[in-house]
Every structure is written in structure tokens, then in C-alpha cells.
Amino acid sequence: MKPFSRELFGSRFGVLMALAGSAIGLGNLWRFPYLTAQNGGAAFILIYIVLLLLVSIPTMITEYLIGRRSRTSIILTPNRLGHPKMKFIGIFAIISAICIMGFYNVVGGWTIKYLTSSIMLQFGSDTADYAGQFSEYISSPYMPLIHTFIFTGLIAFISFKGVKKGIEKASKIITPTLFIATVLIAIRAITLPGAYEGLKYLLVPDFSKVSIDTIQNALGQGFFTLGLGAGTILIYGSYTKSDENITNSSISTAALDLFFAIVAGIAIIPAIFAISYANGSTPTLDAGPQLVFVTLPSVFASMPFGDIVAILFFFSLALAALTSAMSIFESITAFIIDVTEKSRDKAVYICYLICLIPATFCSLSQGVMSDVRILGLNIFDLLDMLSANVFMTLASLFLLIFAGWILKKEDIIDELSNHGKATTPMWILSTVYILIKYVAPLGVTAIFTYWLLF
Ligand code: TRP
Asked: Is the C-beta atom of 103 inside 6 A of ligand 1?
């Protein structure tokens, strides 16, 4: 087995930008604003924060600390830490990473297409049939595939350059740029006449809209946005220096991610309201592709300076997708490097091919292969469902059990306290340990059982 040394991230800022870049992605832009608006605004955000503190952040800390302690990718972690029988956790995580890469890269490809269309000023007419254009595009066999190959190619290009010069450097540039672009869009949105209604709809708490589903959605969103259960936090953890404070950097990542998600909500929901009122129609709120590729282009077409906002928006969407997909790609690449001991270059080629196989099926499942249904879902939706509900959840649950019940408490505290050198008070570390051992696994099990039963 290779020695524990490996290329590490160079700076604290770099680590934070890489983690935040992985966290901030399509989930923040097309799911969080919608979930918040539909589930009682600030009431949803409150529940989301509670679950973040009790379940999602402790799960993130677990992946992170195991990665840093083992300094390897998820498949070899149990071996390194002396429990080779737990290898199956890595298999779950790698399957979830490959499933996510299947549909995520396809959407990444769509963002490239929409970015180029916005640059060519194709979203100028508020009477255009954006729904028709979108479904025609995604169901065509070649163009979305070519865009997907380009998107994944960009990730491979960054990955060739390694941890410090590739992932860290790209994240240090992309994450702040993304942030500035989204803030600019939010400013444009809230200065539109009529935006206030949308802002109220997004943010004023309404506890009557809260149900068990709200809780499930909030937890699911926390897991997806922090990127848990696919080995991505674990691999970034393995590249982190031993003086980085794991608890602090996990909380900072979750806070930046939430802040970005709220700004994204402010950029999106008030604009939809303002434009609908101006046109005398009722605002339509969708999540996912419908929201970003159909509703928003028509909103941009109706707003002053809409052309620029459209470019900024699709630019943000593409960048957000890129740094997120990069972390998942790295989880698979590092797994190939650690298991086969091949060079990074070769591993990147192999990973590129591995990612393109499910992505090709996902892309074709929007058109020529739309009749292929498993469990009633097309391949795209199937991989989304399986990764989010089964593989990510189970990999996270087993990692929590591994850390809380199989590894020794002293080792966990030793890693969290940077071998006793960190200044975090002991009561905080003990609380984190209790969350990892009892609260988070119970929370994940409850949600998984609810999903299975209902
Ligand atoms: N967090 C990203 C988003 O919100 C996606 C992502 C990155 C992810 N790494 C992950 C999802 C690992 C699941 C697992 O879009």
C-alpha cells in the first residue's frame, strides 16, 4: 500500500473554496429557492438549519475526519483504519458518485448550451416558446450529448492538473466569481417593481405549510447540497492539512452554502413574481430544469437588462455545476488512483469514460430512450432517485456507524482536535461526538425508513 503522503491543498482559503464550490451547485439554484418558497419560507429555513446542525453537519464532519485520518479514498479507508470488512461502505459511495455523475454531467451540458444561447442573445423575446425549445433540445440525440462531453471534458482538464494547481486553483477563482455574479442578479431582481411580493413569499415564515415531507425535503436538501455519501468530502478531507480545524471548516462551508442558497432564492423568486405581475399572470413556481431552463428565460426576456442577467445567470449555473461535479469526479478519480496505483493522467481518462457511460444513457433517456423505464422512471430520474434516496443515504449512515461505533472515541476526538493542538473547547468536540454517534444516525435512519414506507 502507498504511504500516507499525498498532494495536499495549499491554503485554508483554498480548502474552504473547494468545499464551498462542491457544496454550492445546482441544488442551491434550482431546488433550495423552490423548497423554501413552497414550504413556508423562513419556517423551512429554520427547520433546515436545525437539521443541518443535528444531522447534516455532523455527517459532513464524519466524512471529513475519516478522510483526513486515512488519507486515502473511500474504498481503502476501512483498510487503512484497520477494519477491512467495512469496505462495502466505499462501494456504496462510489456507486452513488457514478450515478450522480450520470445525470449531473448531462445538466452540466445543458448549462453550457444555455450559456452560449444567452451570449448569442437568444432569450430576447417574451413570447417565445421556451418550454418547447427546451424539450426539443434535450430530446435530440446529439447536441445534448456533445455538450455533456464538453462539460465533463472541462472537469477532466482541471483534474489533470492535480489537487493544488487544478482543483484548488479553479475553486479559488470560480467560487468567488459565482458568488459575485449571483449577488448582482439578486440586486437586479429585488429592484424590479413588484419584487417585494415575491420576497415576502420567499421569506415570511408560514408554519402551516410545514409537514413531515418538509422535514424529509430539508434533510435531503442538506445531504445533497453538502455532498454527503459519495466520498467527495472524504476525498477533499484526505487532501487537507492536519492543522485545519475540521469542525470549523465544516460549519463555515455549510454557512456559506446556505447564504448562497438564500441569495439564489432572492435572485430567482422575486423576479418571477415581479414579471408575472407586470404581465398580469399568476406566478408559476417550478423546481429543477423547468425552473431554470423554461421559466427563467422568459422572465429574463421581460426584464430591463434581461440579456445581461441571462448571461450572468447561466454563467453562474455553469460554474456552480462545474465545481460541484469536479468534487464528485475527484472522488472517482482518486478511487482509481488509490486502487490501481495508476498515474493521475491515466486515472482521469478512465474516470472520464466511466462518467460518460451513465451520462450517455441519461441524456438519451430524455429522447430516443425515453421508453426505457425501470421502477416507472426513465434512466435520468432513476439514477437521481437511487443516488439521493438509497446510495448516498446508506453510505452516510454506515460512515456514521463506522465512526461512532467501530472507531475509538479517542481517535475521533484526536482527529477533531488536531492531535490536541486545536483550540476548540472540549465540550464542543464531545457534543459533536454525541451527534455523530447517536443523533445523526437516528435522523438518517428515520428519514430512510420514512422514504421506504411512503
Ligand atoms: N452539492 C452539489 C449541489 O448542490 C452537488 C454535489 C457535489 C453532490 N458533490 C456531491 C451531491 C456529492 C451528492 C454527493 O448541486
From this structure: no
